[in-house]
Design a protein that fits this description.
Helix content is 31%, strand content 18%. It is built from seven helices and nine strands, in the order βααβαβββαβααβαββ. Helix 1 runs parallel beside helix 5. It is of the alpha+beta class.
Length: 238
């Protein structure tokens, strides 16, 4: 039960043109709160963004006849794009006033919104900056719990925090798609525990040939098309 996102499949993350490119394009907006005085830790921001994607996918408004279900379906039928913007102060308060869900980590706050057309962002979000999401970890993150899901980042790519947040979200989404309804419910009921860590080169080589869900970036920003960015190592998929 694995989903290897390779160019040979009609994957939402593949770099070659497919039928998905003919569909109307939507994007999932994520806004991270970055106050000048107290910015969040990088790893916590990545983990919070990944959980935010899962919280939106599991929300009752995103499924069935829910208020967001149609746009979520439209988004998932096209390229799975996510864009992370940053906000602080009044910008953050304006973003919080829009329909969405705020997910809080140890130091990070990320608000996820229902998908919007690629060229149809709400003005409160369109004016927010994409750049400037460079974050640091005050101290190295602890070793990941082997019993919990881990989103492994490539050791070969240098990504901004915003780009890495979007990639972690992609990995979480691929894992979600691969799980059974029972496995999804268990993950949701536990509060979507997960870790985001950078793999060692040796571990990365093993992961990318393991059959676990693998994100290949479409190459719209920062990195080359087809780059392997994340492997989603969920215990239920091993």
């Amino acid at each position: 039960m694995s989903h290897d996102v390779t160019p040979s499949t009609d994957s939402p993350f593949r770099s070659e043109p497919t039928a998905r490119d003919q569909a109307p394009q939507f994007v999932l907006p994520l806004v991270v709160r970055i106050e000048k005085a107290v910015p969040p830790a990088r790893t916590d921001a990545l983990e919070t963004a990944a959980r935010a994607v899962l919280v939106l996918l599991a929300d009752e408004r995103s499924v069935g006849d829910g208020d967001w279900a149609e746009v979520v379906r439209n988004w998932q039928d096209a390229r799975i794009r996510k864009v992370v913007r940053r906000a602080r102060g009044a910008e953050w308060r304006r973003a919080e006033a829009l329909p969405g869900i705020t997910v809080t980590g140890k130091s990070a706050e990320v608000r996820v919104f229902p998908p919007v057309p690629l060229d149809g962002w709400p003005k409160e979000l369109a004016r927010l900056q994409v750049s400037g999401t460079d974050l640091d970890d005050p101290e190295p993150p602890a070793a990941a719990d082997p019993a919990a899901p881990v989103l492994w980042l490539s050791p070969d790519l240098d990504m901004s925090a915003g780009k890495a947040m979007a990639q972690a979200g992609h990995g979480a989404q691929l894992a979600w798609w691969e799980l059974s309804d029972e496995e999804r419910a268990a993950w949701r009921d536990a509060g979507f525990p997960l870790a985001v860590r950078t793999a060692t080169p040796k571990r990365w080589a093993e992961l990318t040939t393991s059959g676990l869900p693998l994100v290949r970036d479409a190459g719209f920003t920062e990195i080359a098309p087809g780059s392997c960015t994340v492997v989603a190592d969920h215990p239920a998929l091993r």
